[in-house]
């Protein structure tokens, strides 16, 4: 079975694939201070019941990636491993000024989006520590995108800088016009980020129309995507396991 590990700045998502089927996944907190042995204790306990025969990894946290390499060398020394980094085969041309700047997760999401929705351009909206909009050409090329502060970062910053405001539960309020401080914060956050995404998707779509035919498919993913999916009018699909699927595809190309 293939163990896929997606290390983000806030959370790490693990998934176990049996052939092409994702049979189990977990979401745990990312701690850049964890050592290789601590990672093994955590990850090994989660996947103990599965016979792992392959590993696919991507990380946006360099310190954790370093420890992951050590963990793999110590505990999975003879298992085929694919780490998304320069030199690995992804099949994703990076049509940007500096390809080395592009996060591994954005490359993985591009491959998965084009594989799942190959008929035309696509926009992947990844709701994580930051909100990433990644633009995919009809040929599966990564064209660039937009990065914005994530939902939780924005809420934390507002609570820290405004004396009379505080963190609230991130759920959809009963109306856009909040009748109290909690509802007003929820409205501004949920509907505000939905409007941000819709505005960016509209502008990206207009630019894509200059070069490509067809309306882009808009796909949401990431841990915070359920907060906005169904509210942002531009988002058509929700793929919670998009990055894990991309890791599986990359492993198949390199194993």
Automatic annotation (TrEMBL):
Protein's UniProt keywords contain Oxidoreductase: no
SUPFAM superfamilies listed in its UniProt record: Actin-like ATPase domain
InterPro entries according to UniProt: ATPase_NBD, Type_III_PanK
Gene Ontology annotations of biological process type: coenzyme A biosynthetic process
Keyword terms, alphabetized: ATP-binding, Coenzyme A biosynthesis, Cytoplasm, Kinase, Nucleotide-binding, Potassium, Transferase
Cofactor(s) the protein needs: K(+)
Segments passing through the bilayer: none
Keyword Nucleotide-binding among record annotations: yes
A Pfam family annotated for this UniProt entry: Pan_kinase
Stored NCBIfam families: baf, PRK13318.1-3, PRK13321.1
Recorded family membership: Belongs to the type III pantothenate kinase family.
The protein's name: Type III pantothenate kinase
Lineage: unclassified sequences, metagenomes, ecological metagenomes
């Amino acid at each position: 079975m293939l163990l896929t590990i997606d290390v983000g700045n806030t959370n790490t998502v693990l998934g176990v694939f049996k052939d092409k089927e994702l049979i189990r996944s977990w979401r745990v907190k990312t701690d850049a201070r964890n050592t290789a042995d601590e990672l093994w204790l955590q990850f090994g306990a989660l996947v103990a019941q599965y016979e792992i025969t392959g590993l696919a990894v991507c990380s946006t946290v360099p310190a954790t990636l370093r420890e992951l390499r050590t963990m793999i060398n110590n505990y999975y020394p003879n298992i085929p491993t694919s780490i998304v980094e320069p030199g690995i085969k992804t099949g994703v041309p990076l049509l940007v000024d500096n390809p080395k700047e592009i996060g591994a997760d954005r490359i993985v999401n591009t491959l998965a989006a084009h594989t799942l929705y190959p008929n035309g351009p696509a926009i992947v909206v990844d709701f994580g520590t930051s909100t990433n909009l990644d633009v995919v050409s009809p040929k599966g090329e990564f064209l660039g995108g937009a990065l914005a502060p994530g939902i939780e970062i924005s809420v934390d910053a507002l609570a820290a800088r405004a004396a009379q405001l505080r963190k609230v539960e991130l759920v959809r309020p009963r109306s856009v016009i909040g009748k109290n401080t909690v509802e007003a914060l929820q409205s501004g956050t949920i509907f505000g980020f939905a409007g941000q995404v819709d505005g960016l998707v509209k502008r990206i779509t207009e630019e894509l129309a200059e070069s490509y035919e067809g309306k882009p498919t808009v796909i949401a993913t990431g841990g915070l995507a359920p907060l906005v999916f169904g509210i942002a009018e531009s988002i058509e699909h929700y793929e919670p396991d998009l990055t894990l699927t991309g890791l599986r595809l990359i492993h198949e190309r390199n194993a």
